[in-house]
Design a protein that fits this description.
heterodimer; A: 336 residues; mainly alpha; ABC transporter involved in vitamin B12 uptake, BtuC; 13 helices; 76% helix; globular; B: 259 residues; alpha/beta; Rossmann fold; six-stranded mixed beta sheet; four-stranded antiparallel beta sheet; 12 strands; 30% strand
Chain lengths: 336, 259
C-alpha cells in the first residue's frame, strides 16, 4: 500500500469519526432533531427564540455531548496507549493495562466508594492510584536483574495481582446494599452519568500525553527492532522509551479513571489498524487513535440505546473484542 | 579508519577483553575469529558504544567515539546483527528508512530526501526490486541485505557485522559476502566476526584471532591461515588443502582429531 493510500485512509477516518459524533447526538431517549440541534448550537452565539424545549438543551449539554466526547477520548487514549505499549515492549500482546494501570485505578475507585466519597473523588482517586501503581511497577522493574523489559512486565503482573487482591478485599468488606453494587458496576466499565468537568479533565491530560507520542511515533518503529540495534541507529533508546511509557501511562490513567475498566479496546484496535495501514507507527498511531475513538463511540451507542437496560460498556467491548481478535489472528496474511 | 587502542573490558571481576589494539583502514575487510565466548561480541559492543566503561579508546578518523552522541556515532559506525527479527513486520523500504534516523535531527519522520537515500542503498545492495515487499516474507539472505542497506542509509562508512552469514544457507552466505566485497571496493571499512575460517580466508584482507580476550594472532589470510591456527583457535586437528589457484583453503578433520 502506498503512503498516499494510507494518508487517504486516515483522512477518511477523521470524516467517519466526525460523522459518527454527529449521528450519536441524535441517538437517545430524548429525541433531538437536526433542526433543533442547529438551533441549540446557534443560540450559543446569537440570540434566537428557542423552538426546542429547555429539557432538550439540558440533555444535549450536560448528558449526551459529555458522554459522546468521553467515549471518544477514552477509546482514543486506550487504543493509542495499547499501540505504544506493543511497540515499546516489542510484544503484540501488550495492552494499556499491561503494567497495572487498570487494576490500580480499580483499587483507588473501590477505596473511594467505601469511604463514601463523591463521584469526582472516585475519579481522582482512580487516577492517583493508577499512577501510583505504575510508579511502583517502574520502581520494582528498575531493580530487577537481567532483562529490564521482562522485569518491568513481571513487576506489572505482580503489582496488578496485589492491587486486585486489595480490590477483592474491599468488595468483601463493602456494604452489600449500595457500595458493593457501585464497585462492581465501576469495575465493569461505564460512561453513565459522566460529567462535563470530568470530560474536560480527561481531555486535557490525554492531549498532554498524546502530543509527545505523536511526535515520537515514527521512532517507535526503531524500538521494535530491539534495544541494541536501535541504539546503533542513533536512537536515544532510554529517553524515547521512558517518554513513551510515561505518556502512554498518563493517558491510560486519565481514561480508566473516568470510564472504569474497559478491556480489549487497547489490544484489538491497534491490531485492526495494523491490518489496515500496516505496522509503521507513523500511520498506525493516528489510525489507532481515530479508530479507537470511533469504535468506543459506537459501542457506547449500542450500550445506551439498544437494550432497555443499559449494558456496561466493558462487557460489550469484551463481547465484540475477543471474537474479533480471534478473527484477526486466524485470518493470516502478513501485511506490511 | 577505525582504531582500537589498548581496549579492555570486564563484566564485574571477570576480564573479557584485555589490551586489544588494532585498526581497520578504509577499504579493508577485517575478519575476527575466535571460539564461542572468546570476546568477539563484547569487542564489537565496545566499538559500537553499546558497552560503556571500557578501558582504552576507540577512535574513528582520530576522533574519540566515547565523546560522541548516539546520532553522531550512528553516522560513523553501523551495526549488522546476525539476524534482525523485529516484533512486527515492516515493508523493506520502511526497514531501510529506519537507518536514516540519525539524519532527522528534530523532524518527526523521514521525508523525500531520506526516501531517496533508502532507495539508493537498496540499489547498492542489489535488492531495489524488494522495496515494497514485506520484510518477513523475503528470504534470510535478502533480509540480511536489507539490514546492510539500512546500515548504509545511516551514512556510516564503517560496518560492524556480528556473524552476518551464520544463519544463512550456503548460497546466501556467498551472496552476502560478495555484496560486502563490492562495498569494500567502494571504500567502506568492514569488520565482521565469523565461525568459518574458510570463508574468512577467501573474503577478508586481514584476520584477527582472539582467544580469552586477547589477540593472539593477526595478519593476512595467506600468511596466518594454516593447520596450527585452526588447532589454536578451536582445539581440533585438521589437515589443510589449498585450491590450485590458491583462492581457497579447506580444512578436513583428522581422524581422531578431537584433542
Amino acid at each position: 500500500m502506498t503512503e498516499r493510500a494510507k494518508r487517504l485512509i486516515i483522512s477518511a477516518m477523521v470524516v467517519i469519526l466526525f460523522a459518527g459524533i454527529v449521528v450519536s447526538v441524535f441517538l437517545g431517549q430524548f429525541s433531538i432533531s437536526p433542526g433543533e440541534l442547529w438551533g441549540i448550537i446557534r443560540s450559543q452565539f446569537t440570540d434566537i427564540e428557542p423552538y426546542w424545549t429547555s429539557q432538550q438543551e439540558h440533555i444535549l449539554w450536560t448528558v449526551r455531548l459529555p458522554r459522546i466526547l468521553a467515549a471518544c477520548i477514552v477509546g482514543l487514549a486506550l487504543s493509542c496507549a495499547g499501540g505504544v505499549y506493543q511497540g515499546v515492549f516489542e510484544n503484540p500482546m501488550a495492552a494499556p493495562d499491561f503494567l497495572g494501570a487498570s487494576s490500580g485505578a480499580a483499587l483507588g475507585a473501590a477505596l473511594a466508594i467505601i469511604l463514601g466519597l463523591g463521584d469526582r473523588m472516585i475519579t481522582l482517586m482512580a487516577f492517583v492510584f493508577s499512577l501510583a501503581t505504575i510508579c511502583l511497577v517502574y520502581f520494582i522493574g528498575s531493580r530487577t536483574r537481567g532483562n529490564k523489559t521482562v522485569g518491568l512486565v513481571l513487576a506489572g503482573l505482580m503489582v496488578s495481582a496485589l492491587a486486585q487482591a486489595g480490590t477483592s478485599f474491599i468488595k468483601l468488606v463493602a456494604d452489600q446494599t449500595n457500595e458493593l453494587p457501585e464497585i462492581t458496576y465501576w469495575l465493569m466499565g461505564s460512561l453513565t452519568g459522566i460529567e462535563a468537568s470530568e470530560v474536560l479533565y480527561a481531555f486535557a491530560i490525554v492531549c498532554i500525553g498524546c502530543i509527545p507520542l505523536l511526535f515520537l511515533r515514527w521512532r517507535l518503529n526503531i524500538l521494535t527492532v530491539g534495544e541494541q540495534e536501535a541504539e546503533t541507529m542513533g536512537l536515544r533508546v532510554s529517553l524515547v522509551r521512558a517518554v513513551s511509557l510515561v505518556c502512554a501511562t498518563l493517558i491510560t490513567a486519565a481514561a480508566v479513571s473516568i470510564s472504569g475498566m474497559i478491556g480489549w479496546v487497547g489490544l484489538v484496535v491497534p491490531h485492526f489498524c495494523r491490518k489496515l495501514v500496516g505496522n509503521n507507527y507513523r500511520y498506525l498511531l493516528p489510525a489507532s487513535m481515530l479508530t479507537g475513538a470511533f469504535f468506543l463511540l459506537m459501542v457506547d451507542n449500542v450500550s445506551r440505546n439498544l437494550f432497555p437496560v443499559e449494558i456496561p460498556i466493558g462487557i460489550l467491548t469484551a463481547v465484540i473484542g475477543a471474537p474479533f481478535f480471534i478473527y484477526l489472528i486466524t485470518k493470516g496474511g502478513e501485511s506490511a | 579508519m577505525i582504531s582500537v587502542k589498548n581496549l579492555s573490558f570486564s563484566y564485574g571481576n571477570r576480564e573479557v577483553l584485555h589490551d586489544i589494539t588494532f585498526d581497520a583502514k578504509q577499504g579493508e575487510m577485517l575478519c575476527v575469529l575466535g571460539h564461542n565466548g572468546a570476546g568477539k561480541s563484547t569487542l564489537f559492543k565496545c566499538m559500537l558504544g553499546l558497552l560503556r566503561g571500557y578501558g582504552g579508546t576507540v577512535t574513528i578518523d582520530g576522533k574519540d567515539m566515547a565523546g560522541m552522541n548516539p546520532a553522531e556515532k550512528a553516522t560513523h559506525v553501523a551495526y549488522i546483527p546476525q539476524a534482525a527479527n523485529p516484533a512486527f513486520s515492516y515493508s523493506v523500504i520502511d526497514m531501510v528508512l529506519m537507518g536514516t534516523n540519525p539524519r532527522l535531527s528534530g523532524r518527526v519522520s523521514p521525508g523525500a530526501a531520506e526516501r531517496e537515500i533508502a532507495l539508493d542503498t537498496l540499489e547498492k545492495t542489489g535488492i531495489e526490486s524488494l522495496a515494497n515487499r514485506s520484510y518477513s516474507m523475503i528470504s534470510g539472505g535478502e533480509q540480511q541485505l536489507v539490514i546492510i542497506a539500512r546500515a548504509l542509509a545511516q551514512g556510516a562508512e564503517t560496518l560492524i557485522l556480528d556473524e552476518p552469514t551464520s544463519s544463512l544457507d550456503y548460497g546466501n552466505q556467498m551472496r552476502v559476502q560478495k555484496i560486502l566485497r563490492k562495498l569494500i571496493e567502494e571504500g567502506y571499512t568492514i569488520i565482521q566476526s565469523s565461525h568459518n575460517p574458510e570463508q574468512a580466508y577467501t573474503f577478508s584482507d586481514r584476520i584477527i584471532c582472539i582467544k580469552e580476550g586477547r589477540i593472539f594472532r593477526e595478519g593476512a589470510p595467506v600468511d596466518i591461515m594454516d593447520e596450527r591456527l585452526i588447532e589454536d583457535l578451536y582445539g581440533i586437528e585438521v589437515e589443510m588443502m589449498t585450491s590450485s589457484d590458491k583462492r581457497a583453503r579447506f580444512f578436513a578433520l583428522k581422524e581422531d582429531g578431537q584433542k
